[in-house]
Amino acid sequence: MNLSKDPVSKLFLRFLIPAITGTMVTALYAVADGIFVGQGIGGRGLAAINVGYPILTFIIAMALGLGMGSSTLISINSDNKEFKNSCFSQTIFVNIIFYIIMMIFVNVMGDKLFYLLGSNKDLLPMVSDYTNICLWFSIFFTFSIILSSIVRNDNSPNYAMKSMLIGAGINIVLDYVLIYHTNLGIKGAAYATGIGQVCSTLYLIRYFVKGKTFKLVFEKIDLKMLGKMFSIGFPSFILEFAVAFITILFNKEFFRYMGEVGVSAFSIVAYVFYIFRMLFNGLAQAIQPIISYNYGHHEFARIKKIFMLGHLVSLVISIGILIMIKFEGYMIVNMFNDNLELVEVANRGLLLYSSAMVFLGANFINISYLQSKERARAANFISINRSMVFVAGALFILPSQIGVDGVWLALPCSDFLTFLTTFFFKERKKKLINI
């Protein structure tokens, strides 16, 4: 596979299929968690996971930022073996340091942190059980994300995909066994998720042990390299961190307007929406190695082709998702729980929450494009506005005007405003699509 000479459409498919397969598998086994918890434990279990999930999301966001930043630098400097080894090693060491810091922070905060995230006394035991178990396994979550990103950029997208398939398969089987056939309850869901990630990480480690592409070197932390890595990966971090930020804000708003049933409904919608988000994430991952490599080799015409192709595919996928939600939304949310009130609330919420799907896909493509070209300032500007500024503003204004529907519409409003910002955004008097 030649990233600078093979037809762009052929390269796109070569990266798209394993990337989307991998991210969709990750999404589906997360959804399987939700279905097993919703049916086996109930709406309270869904609410408990949703309250504690921002902690895990923040950890995952850091891993995505590190993975995107390091893999992009490695891809751009693909001919420099010494640089690749150094970048790989710096990423591993920083990830371990971050994990230790997070473990200390969460343990020091204790139950106070869960209350800050929106828990109440009734949910606290479940929130604590699920989150603390997952936290111990989170080092494997992060390595799975980082290593798969590096493997994908090392022209091995199928290997990265297989690692996700392994983790997903084990997680789903263990979900069924530990939730339905033991007395572990929500702890079983946490153990199933954690063990799945352990297996995925071990499979990825095998790639680096058997191959000779990368070598772990022990050296001082290179702040300049880390700064560049974080700068490139920051939009990926923000896009994922936004999930934690949004979840906390939304949980508080739904508790305020609807109580526990609102939080449970939002949990169902968040699980379903996660599939869509990961689908676009896979699409963004597919274009990233191609753009980064060709940018490093000054093949600007090829970059523009892949950018436009990515947007076309994103548009088609978005329209398909909206049609599915319109006609099959009730059936989808009913898989999580059969409580009539909960299903009705979640069904309406899913339709409203997904209404700006076309803009969501376009935003993911635009941000990935900018990251891949090391245009960190523009990517960061767009990501921060989408993930925090616009969402917070919409949540402040819309619910006070139209009630609970305004809570559901806050994220679509943010994606629409982000798209407008991107459309008119210029850097150095160039439009976004200009090379």
From TrEMBL:
Domain of life the protein comes from: Bacteria
Annotated Gene Ontology cellular component terms: plasma membrane
GO molecular function: antiporter activity; xenobiotic transmembrane transporter activity
Pfam families reported for this sequence: MatE
Transmembrane segments: 12-32, 52-76, 88-110, 130-151, 163-182, 188-209, 230-250, 262-280, 306-325, 345-366, 378-400, 406-425
Keyword Cytoplasm in record: no
Signal peptide: none
One BP annotation, GO: response to antibiotic
The entry's keywords: Antibiotic resistance, Cell membrane, Membrane, Transmembrane, Transmembrane helix, Transport
Chief localisation class: membrane
Membrane topology: Multi-pass membrane protein
Alphabetical list of InterPro entries matching this protein: MATE_fam (IPR002528), MATE_MepA-like (IPR045070), MATE_MepA_subfamily (IPR051327), MdtK-like (IPR048279)
Subcellular location: Cell membrane
Heme found in the keyword field: no
Family classification: Belongs to the multi antimicrobial extrusion (MATE) (TC 2.A.66.1) family. MepA subfamily.
NCBIfam families linked to this entry: matE (TIGR00797)
Protein name: Multidrug export protein MepA
Source organism of the structure: Cetobacterium ceti
Lineage: Bacteria, Fusobacteriati, Fusobacteriota, Fusobacteriia, Fusobacteriales
